[in-house]
């Protein structure tokens, strides 16, 4: 090989080689990122626990009584959470009401039975039901207009909105009508916001 060829080969090798990355610096960035993400999740968990402590005055949820009458309506779908009535972003987390889950709803003359596999079940007596409406969102979930069944009920001294979505959304209108007919003080104008 001639010296000119050797020089050309050396220049070509210099142009093609990339800078060597320091492994230590890269590992430090990755570890820093993982620590930051863990810290953010820890803060979110602390916020959830703090919200639960603020709502600790909410009484225990009623359980399903024995010998319920025949059901009027039943549906399966998703439970998306509960909020303070009229404040769709004020999520209630006490007693597991903030946990999303599958749901089996049953409406009887005695009230609304909410069965949530993997989360706490509860029962809303008919006297506590205040109404139902179709809405588009509740804390953490936004759907198309009318895509969410929102049931308003009283618990202790608090009015609560609970959001449900049926596997068959066409069922929602029948639920709104049936729940609103259970409480004669509700008018159809009050059910639609």
- Secondary-structure class: alpha+beta
Molecular shape = elongated
SSE pattern, N- to C-terminal: HHEEEEEEEEEEHH
Please report the total strand number as a whole number: 10
Main sheet attributes: strand count, strand direction, barrel closure = 8 strands, antiparallel
Weakly predicted, low-confidence segments: 187-193
Query: How large is the radius of gyration?
Result: 28 Å
Strand percentage lies at: 25-35%
Mean pLDDT across all amino acids:
84
Number of helices: 4
The share of residues in helices is: 25-40%
Termini gap? 87 Å
Structural commentary:
The protein is of the alpha+beta class. Helices cover 32% and strands 32% of the residues. The protein is built from four helices and ten strands; from the N terminus they run ααββββββββββαα. The strands form two sheets. Strands 1, 2, 3, 4, 5, 6, 9 and 10 form an eight-stranded antiparallel beta sheet that branches. It is elongated and about 100 Å long.
């Amino acid at each position: 090989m001639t010296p000119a060829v050797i020089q050309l080969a050396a220049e070509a090798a210099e142009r093609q080689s990339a800078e060597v990355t320091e492994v230590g610096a890269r590992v430090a960035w990755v570890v820093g990122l993982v620590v930051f993400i863990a810290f953010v999740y820890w803060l979110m968990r602390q916020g959830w626990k703090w919200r639960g402590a603020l709502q600790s005055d909410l009484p225990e949820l009623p359980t399903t009584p024995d010998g319920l009458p025949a059901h009027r309506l039943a549906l399966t779908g998703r439970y998306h959470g509960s909020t303070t009535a009229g404040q769709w972003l004020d999520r209630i987390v006490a007693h597991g009401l903030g946990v999303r889950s599958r749901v089996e709803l049953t409406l009887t003359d005695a009230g609304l039975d909410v069965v949530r596999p993997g989360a706490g079940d509860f029962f809303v007596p008919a006297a506590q039901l205040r109404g139902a409406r179709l809405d588009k969102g509740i804390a953490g979930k936004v759907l198309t207009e009318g895509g969410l069944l929102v049931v308003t009920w009283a618990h202790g001294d608090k009015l609560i909105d609970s959001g449900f979505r049926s596997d068959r959304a066409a069922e929602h209108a029948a639920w709104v009508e049936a729940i609103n007919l259970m409480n004669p003080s509700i008018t159809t104008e009050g059910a639609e916001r």
